[in-house]
Amino acid sequence: MGAFNSLTYNSNICIGCGECMMACAKAKSGDADRFDQSRIKIVPAGDNKFEAALCRQCGDANCVVNCPAGALTKNAASGVVDWNADLCVTCLLCTVGCAYGGITFESSVGHVAKCDTCGGDPACVKVCKSGALGYVTTASIYNDYGKQEDLFAPGLAACQGCNSELMIRHVLRRVGRNVVVAAPPGCIPGMGTVGYNGKAGAKVPIFHPLLTNTASMLAGLKRTYERQGRDVTALALAGDGGASDVGFQSLSGAAERGEHILFLCFDNEGYMNTGMQASSATSFGSWTSTTPVGDKLQGKRTDAKNLPMVMMMHNAAYVATASSVFMEDFYRKLDKALAASKQGFAYLHLYAPCPSGWRFPASLTIDVCRLMVESNFVTLWEYTPETGLVFTRPTDKPKPLESYLKAIGKYRHLAQEQVDRIKKLLEDRLVLLKRFVR
Amino acid sequence: MQSCTYLIVGASHAGLAAADAIRMIDQASPMILASRESHLPYSPTILPYVVSGRSKAERTALRSEAFFKEKNITFLRSAQLQSIDAEKSLAHFDQGTSIRFEKLLLATGAVSSLPAIPGLGDVAFHVLRTMDDALGLKTAMMGARRALVLGAGLIGTHAAENMAEAGMKVSIVEPEKQLLPGYFDAKASGLIEKAFDGHGIDLKFGRSVASLKPGVAVLDDGQEVPFDLLLIATGVRPALTYLDGSGIRIDRGILVDERQHTNLPAVWAAGDCAQVRLFQSEGTGVAGILPMAALQGRIAGQGMAGDEGQKPFPGAVSLNTYSFFGQQAISVGAGISGADSPGAETVLRFDETAKTYLRLVLKDGRLMGAASVNHPLDPGILWQLILRQTDLSDVKERFLADPKTTGRLLMSRLWR
Description:
Structural class of chain A: alpha/beta
Number of strands of chain B: 24
Oligomer: heterodimer
Number of strands of chain A: 18
Largest sheet of chain A: 8 strands, mixed
Radius of gyration of chain B: 22 Å
CATH superfamily of the largest domain in chain B: FAD/NAD(P)-binding domain
Structural class of chain B: alpha/beta
Strand content of chain B: 25-35%
Largest sheet of chain B: 7 strands, mixed
Number of domains of chain A: 2
Strand order of the largest sheet of chain A: 12-9-13-14-16-15-17-18
CATH topology of the largest domain in chain A: Rossmann fold
Shape of chain A: globular
């Protein structure tokens, strides 16, 4: 079973205008005024609040289990619970199974009715003014790329909950076999991508440059391929240490020269592979093994270098930040970066919260990724010399920063003045970034 | 001799739900699903619709051969369980087949129970519990003009409607004073009876058949009712003679705990053959309705496969939906018996002309039961409100005025 697209409803922002019910009634019966025909029911909850009853297309649906006629089936391709009018005997046992009011009977309709997502193009979502209804299609990305070949070995030894492993697998599925990969010292080769004991960790050419010369080695390879008339993607999978500290000189040079390289930086804010030492990308106040918490020191004393902004200032062909929690955004940026790397230098900065080094449970990586973006601790944007900077996620209603800091052990010791400093830094940075918006 | 990890006996809702639940966790271990039927799995609930022609017998299968192949399940047809040797983990079927199992689920359902009426052995009669019963009844209806139905439960009323719609003259004899006793009160039943009267069905309440002769039933008041076709629909009961000597404890059904486990470690039971705890009253009983069978089957399957997501059976709640002559009736929870309990509060809305009826019973601000005729409700939501004992105090007026919308509001919140 694959992943499925799904309708979403956010009761916090629903204004109860009823447009969705009219659109549904119109789509299902031709008559927008027949509210009884609507398969989505918005219910007033008092105080100008609203709730919704609609089919959730359950994975293991009770309506299907309760149907004696085989009229309800879970569609393995679309994920929709399909209703077959020919087989239905109107016994209503499906309505006994559903705890959501998702499949219902109205005598004026004469049969049970449920949402069929309009075949993957729901009419209700299109007319929703408040944005309370959504149709999440991220699942189809996973299905599409799930069909592509995974070009890393099945058993990489990343820590539990590491999203860098997940993301490098996604990247190579998209980039494909026609590639040469540079993986400088860090977690990515550490997990076995380059190889262990003479066994390759990837199914494509991959090499292990020094921290200092990643971009220059890759530039040389790329130029050699171009001289031979071969169109091979030159891809770097580097960590923040390899990109913003010792590897910075060659990275900056390659960007300045406009080398045809796709450079990905997986930012886990430190040298996590070698014992959680701080890097120049480690955020202010973070506990690391070299910025301990004790009498003299309360975590890192300096702010993180903002490498994506620095790369933007190189006027590279494409620069963007991305997070594994917004995969549609990530894939769109990866496509653009890949295209840009054919003509110039493309830099993609991926936020990679580290359960081992940051001290949070491995099961919460994606939640931490989400909080990181939603609290504006990081912002998602892209830059080209032609368009300037464009934010790809709204920054205007951030969640409290504390919700993010509290989720992570490396900030546990933070005093209020440290939190205030981070807040100030984030506000200033946002103001600065906005100046690059045209 | 065949052997398997999971042996499921019975291929209706409980057995199928168990097979699905097991395959969620364990895709590989050998599983045998044995059915006493020669057909692919079907639901007993569909049978009245097969009789009426609304459902085609060949399109009632709940699973296909391809499904069993894909899920690595051996589907064994025409296998009637004869006995169980728990010591040796053996199940013996008719025709000498024996299967060695590691874990056994008994989901053998129920059979029609026959009343002790003098002369029953001398007359041809029908019951409606299996596909072959349905096909036999359908065929018999073609050559018959006058039908007599014993019992005004769901099967009897459904079949009576089918036969009336087919142009037959139908009488129903029911010892109680109304249709569908236990689910509806006299007022609600009255609305349903009107539809039956309107279709020429002769309802003989408060009476029973004293004796039977070929073609004639003599009632306890002496009236003679002639018939060409006799349908006995006086109820069902689990058929458990195969358990003799097995050491598995039974009462009216197979005794199970809240995880559908019998007293033997390798044996589970679910569905119409199992005796389970009741949610709204003390003691245990055989639930005998589809949603409970499916739920019990899932719980049993989860237990057999060691699924950590298993939740215990909360207890059976009386539930039914009933369609008659294009109208609908719904009953959820202890509406009738609950109304008499101290502190219970009943709201009744009854409109004889509009043919609508709604009754809600609350106690201590919590829903006890609901019943309706031609008044749409979401029974799944009401069932949840009963199971969760949701406090309705804050929305009581609204709930009583509009249980459907208010129920949807509550569940939308509760599920978030």
